[in-house]
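Handout, page 2. Input:
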Amino acid sequence: MTPTTPSFFEAQLPALLSSRRDAPAFWMLDLLWIPLLEAHQTGGLFSVTEQWMPKDSGAHTRHVHNVDEWFFVLDGTVDFELEGETTSGQDGDSLWIPRGTVHSFNVTSDVGHVLNGYTPGGFEQVIKGLARPAPRRELPPRTEEPVPEDIAAAQFLFSNYWTARADDPWAKSFAR
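Output:
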């Protein structure tokens, strides 16, 4: 099978500086998402998104990706469930989630601030397509009931080319 993205050495990408000051910001669910490096900037090799998440938010649905995912916890505490085992990531911790790993996560501190990356890149396009532009670079206001667009987004977020609920029959195609 021919790879769909070039290898690191084949990509021959120019040097690139990316800044959160210049990157677009989005609100979806109760998170602030800032795509820092998008797949189109990295030759498809990877993408990086900065996220702020309030307490008790995260991807609570056990799910699986067809891409590798990683987290770097900048601030706060995030509990990760990986293949049924729970681990806690705190300031300065990194977590690698190989494609096909069933996982979920939950923010247990007041706010979790992470870098979240994918390789190959592209998952940031799901966020950009589902989220709404953030009028301010802060967490969206919490409401009693989810915003209707967020309900639809959450349903799609776990059932698309990139992600499947762990109990979906087609998720087995992502299995390791």
